[in-house]
Amino acid sequence: MSTELMQVNAMLNGQNFVAGEWRDGADWIEDINPSDVTDIVGRFAQAQPSDIHDAVAAAQGAQREWAAAGLESRAAVLDTIGRELMARSKELGELLSREEGKILAEGVGEVYRAGQFFTYFAAEALRNLGSSAESVRAGVDVLIEREPLGVVAIISPWNFPIATASWKIAPALAFGNAVVWKPASVTPASAWALTEIISRQAIPKGLFNLVMGSGSTIGRELAANADIQGLSFTGSGAVGSGIAALAATRFVKLQLEMGSKNPFVVMDDADLDRAVDLAVNGAFGGSGQKCTAASRMIVHRPVHDAFVEKLLAKTKALKVGHALEAGVQMGPVVSAGQLSANLDYVTLGKSEGAELATGGEALDLAHRGHYMAPAVFLNGRSLMRINQEEMFAPITCVLTAGDLDEAIFLANDTPYGLTAGIATRSLARATKFRRASRSGCVMVNLATAGTDYHVPFGGVRASSYGPREQGRAAVEFYTQAKTSYIHAGAAE
Ligand code: NDP
């Protein structure tokens, strides 16, 4: 363990941050390393409903002050947060990998990316330009400005514990909102570390609040609070729809990023070695626990056998182990509950008639953790549950397509639509796929996972609801338009 991480660890008795003060909880939970369950990352305070009440109340006052503070103050604060995240990406990435289980390079990359969200939105704060219009009435000018919503609730998942939160928190603050953040319960250390950085900035007391606690109590309490004006959520569809129902009764502005079932199509003219690399990266990066993971491989029949042979060889060769160990290519899954759900999906896939060609079993390694061998199913059919439901696991299933039209049909044949990839050397095929894909993001000769931070991100159908996240599109959710009509009259 590095000296820097030992210093972070020494502080890890993480409290909530409410109304500008660090607060103990009614209860505490332990944060356990999924690579080694004997390693306790820290103890974290659990908020109670009164903390939500206090956080939102303080946020309301602080938000008005923050919105009036001026563009340059907001930009400077965001820039400072971003630069600190980038400068400490190795140390905080190690902490993230330790509590979430993704390999170190992914943990470090995620923290660095989180920093980029802050520096990007620091600049966007300055670019919140309005517009003007000619009125249909003589002598009247029209101004269209974008104002903050007020207090925004953010509920985030564990799979990208710092990046997902950052792509919500940064634009919320950039455009003048206050934030109350409820992170996922299995990854509190990353949430606490980000909050610790934000708590040291020159911001109004109460502008930013961290309330850790279980989703079904504290998350629900936050979503039901009468004084939040916006709610941005990433997680499962089931929780998302419950939150939407709650928010709808109070007309709270909503943004939901939920499940996916991303296809990766391989055509017979693809560079097969590259296609296999992209497939493995998309399916097993982050132990398959990405909303952009490739959980369905749709392979053109002429190259099916050759692709499968290479895919199996590469999957079997993946080194699974402790997330912080050099040379490990896939860490554990996040929790015992997730591992057990994954193994249930493996049993289900077999019972549905798919052929398990490799992996799918729990692994007993030197460290006691939630390890499983990456799994590939063959001879799948589209309507099998393993090809319809988000598993969030290192499990992928190969389907066969006779031609591009069938590949497109299969790619679109789920309730979801987040990302979709195709490997082909044909511009015409790639273009047809891109146009026909019912998904929010299309990847041509790239893995289904892996996006930029300065362009819109989101899906269609059951994957997303509400305005897009990231890039300039974020202004749509975190602000509302005000249209002013001005009649100046005649000058004296
Ligand atoms: P959840 O949807 O349960 O959790 C996401 C966030 O919502 C967490 O902060 C959680 O808190 C909170 N939450 C849970 N219940 C409520 C509630 N009733 N009201 C308000 N907030 C709530 O996802 P999980 O993390 O449990 O993962 C389950 C599955 O969801 C995964 O296996 C995967 O299929 C999918 N998922 C998809 C993601 C995506 O990016 N598409 C991201 C994460 C998950 P707490 O952690 O305390 O439960």
Topology, pairings included?
Layout: H1 3-11, E1 13-14, E2 16-18, E3 21-23, E4 27-32, E5 40-46, H2 49-68, H3 71-87, H4 89-100, H5 104-126, E6 131-134, E7 140-148, E8 151-155, H6 163-174, E9 178-182, H7 188-199, E10 208-210, H8 215-223, E11 230-234, H9 237-248, E12 253-257, E13 262-266, H10 272-284, E14 294-300, H11 304-317, H12 336-352, E15 355-358, E16 375-378, E17 395-401, H13 404-411, E18 419-423, H14 427-436, E19 441-444, E20 464-465, H15 474-478, E21 479-487
Parallel strand pairs: 1-5, 8-9, 8-11, 9-10, 11-12, 13-14, 13-18, 14-17, 16-17, 18-19
Antiparallel strand pairs: 2-3, 4-5, 6-7, 7-21, 12-20, 15-16
The structure holds NADPH dihydro-nicotinamide-adenine-dinucleotide phosphate.
NADPH dihydro-nicotinamide-adenine-dinucleotide phosphate (NDP) is lined by residues 155-159, 182-185, 214-216, 219-220, 223, 234-236, 239, 242-243, 257-260, 291, 390, 392.
N-end to C-end Cα span: 75 Å
Main beta sheet strand tally, sense and closure: 7 strands, mixed
Bound molecules: NADPH dihydro-nicotinamide-adenine-dinucleotide phosphate
Output the number of helix runs: 15
Q: Could you list the spans in which at least 5 consecutive residues all have pLDDT below 50? A: 1-7
Mean pLDDT rating: 96
By secondary-structure content and strand pairing, the structural class works out as: alpha/beta
Strand content: 15-25%
What coarse outline follows from CA principal-axis ratios?
globular
Give the oligomer, counting copies of the same chain as homo and different chains as hetero: single chain
Share of helical residues? 25-40%
Strand tally, please?
21
List the strand order in the largest sheet: 15-16-17-14-13-18-19
Nearest-angstrom radius of gyration? Answer: 23 Å
